[in-house]
């Protein structure tokens, strides 16, 4: 079986999301994602503001938590899977595996956020601005605790993979050599998606340490929400 097969499964999951055919849900989803990104920026302001962490912070916000180009990226992934036998010869195996982890996290984030958006539409007027209390009550009602903790566990796993695989000079050099073919055959978004991970890694001593600092606070927030704290997002 092709090493790219998991990407095909992820794209199939992504294409089944209801918001693709529901403009109102899509709008609410984007609003919920923006609330989440704003909250993450506030929660992790000190971590994100450190000079060496800024690229990784942007990778989190723009890629792993619902990037604006994911529709186009998904189409490129579909095309890439169809020529898997060629792609696997060009792209280092460890880069493929790490890319799959990153795409999987992005798809999981959108699935969970779509659930949030649906619940918001059910409980509140579609044009009501999302605030902390709305989100607190929505998260309690959905009871996403285990799914959100799984998301954080997967993030920790990505940190280990980034340190283990993407720090290799040989892997990095091989990946850079793929840039020409990637752009020639219009796989530029997929290349950039992985390439931003490489770039974000460069200033860091350890991606694992950065991500664990992030997930430690996020686990506190998950626990705060589901233990009924009045202001769970203030950590």
Automatic annotation (TrEMBL):
Pfam families, per database record: DUF8198
Organism domain of life: Bacteria
Domain DUF8198: 17-232
Protein's name in the database: DUF8198 domain-containing protein
């Amino acid at each position: 079986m092709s090493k790219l097969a998991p990407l095909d499964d992820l794209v199939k999951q992504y294409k089944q999301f209801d918001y693709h055919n529901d403009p109102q849900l899509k709008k609410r989803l984007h609003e919920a994602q923006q609330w989440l990104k704003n909250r993450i920026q506030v929660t992790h302001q000190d971590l994100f503001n450190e000079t060496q962490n800024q690229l990784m912070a942007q990778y989190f916000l723009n890629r792993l938590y619902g990037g604006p180009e994911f529709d186009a990226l998904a189409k490129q992934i579909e095309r890439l899977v169809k020529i898997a036998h060629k792609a696997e010869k060009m792209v280092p195996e460890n880069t493929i595996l790490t890319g799959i982890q990153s795409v999987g996290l992005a798809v999981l984030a959108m699935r969970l956020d779509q659930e949030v958006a649906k619940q918001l539409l059910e409980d509140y007027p579609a044009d009501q601005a999302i605030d902390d209390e709305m989100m607190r009550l929505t998260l309690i009602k959905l009871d996403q605790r285990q799914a959100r903790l799984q998301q954080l566990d997967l993030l920790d796993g990505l940190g280990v993979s980034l340190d283990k695989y993407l720090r290799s000079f040989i892997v990095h050099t091989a990946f850079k050599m793929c840039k020409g073919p990637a752009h020639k055959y219009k796989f530029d978004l997929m290349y950039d998606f992985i390439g931003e991970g490489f770039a974000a890694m460069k200033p860091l001593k350890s991606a694992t340490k950065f991500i664990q600092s992030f997930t430690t606070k996020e686990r506190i927030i998950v626990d705060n929400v589901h233990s009924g704290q009045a202001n769970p997002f203030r950590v």
